Amino acid sequence: MNRDTIKGQWKQLSGKIKAKWGKLTDDDIDVAEGNFEYLVGKVQERYGIARDEAEKEVREFNRMP
After folding, report:
1. Given its phi and psi angles, is residue 64 left (phi above 0), alpha (psi -120 to 50 degrees) or beta?
2. Which of 24, 26, 55 shows the shortest CA–CA distance to 42?
3. Would you tell me which of 7, 9, 29, 40 could form a disulfide with 34, CB atoms 3.0–4.6 Å apart?
């Protein structure tokens, strides 16, 4: 799944994102609206992890079927 796919399927993915990263608020997810960089930043912020680790997690999430 690439960044364009994320944007196109955001509504469907938002539920999976909430399940994976429960600390993200509905507002976080609504504002992200398929923006890879914003989502990485919010995962980093909410979970207090390094940017590289947050990016790795989001990339791995993108690979999920």
Report:
1. beta
2. 24
3. 7
Sign of the alpha-carbon dihedral angle for 55, 6, 35, 12: negative
End-to-end CA distance of the chain: 8
CATH superfamily, with its number, for domain 3-63: YjbJ (1.10.1470.10)
CA 65, CA 61: separation in Å to the nearest integer?
9
Instruction: Tell me the whole-structure pTM to 2 decimals.
Output: 0.81
| Alpha-carbon span 2 to 22, nearest angstrom | 22
pLDDT at 43 over 80: yes
